[in-house]
Amino acid sequence: MKLVRYCVMNFRSVKNSGWIDCDDVTTLVGVNESGKSNLLLALWKLNPARGGEIDILHDMPVSELSTLRNRKNEVKFISAEFEMEKDCAEVISKNTGYKCEEGMRVIVSRFYDGRYEIDFPDGDPEVMICAEKETEQEIEEIESKEELENEENNQELIVVLSTFDTDEKGGDGGFNPNDTYANWQWYLVKTADKKSWEIINWGY
Question: Which residues, given as ranges, of the chain have pLDDT below 50?
């Protein structure tokens, strides 16, 4: 994807930079200690190749630290707008089921709790799900419900709710990377001849 512009907010000495347009070559001009390095540091922390951990004590503005440190999940420090290139749009479409096209814009923001937010300024892309896939999904959902009903009739069943964050690999690969799952349901059963609980299903 091609970086089009970005905005830094509540990061070190930068209160709100406003949108900074980017091109193949972009120059930041300013006097010493005016915050040029902080503009680049925040952009780097959007998705660092290595390191780049968010440091609340040093990254949040000192004058706002007492107010913002308890609102990490509400305060974003970087937003970047990208333009999708053809190869990238095809990969995103394949992995998300959304119809993304070359030239489409996407805004990626990061909050102080590490969470990411993704917006499409031109409107959400169209969902690409064929009728056959919908039918298969409906069948799987029905079979899953029937299985749970049978398990519930013959075995002890409990549902555990959990909230957790995933790492950059998405756990075992079955979850979105760097995401938060709230009230995720785990279905566990215990049959008469078993002494331990067994997970039979999970999801929302």
Answer: 129-134
Helix, strand, or coil here: 55?
coil
Please provide the distance, in angstroms rounded to a whole number, between the alpha carbons at the two ends of the chain.
32
CA 36, 21, 77: angle at the middle one, nearest 5?
Answer: 55
Q: Are 180 and 115 in contact (CB under 8 A)?
A: yes
Indicate the burial class of 7 (C-beta count within 10 angstroms; 0-12, 13-18, 19 or more).
buried
Please state, in angstroms and rounded to a whole number, the distance separating the CA atoms of residues 55 and 44: 13
CA pair distance 62, 75, nearest whole angstrom? 15
What predicted TM-score, i.e. pTM, was given to this entire model? 0.58
Dihedral of CA atoms 18, 21, 26, 28 in degrees, nearest 10, equals -10
How far is 29 from 194, CA to CA, in rounded Å?
69
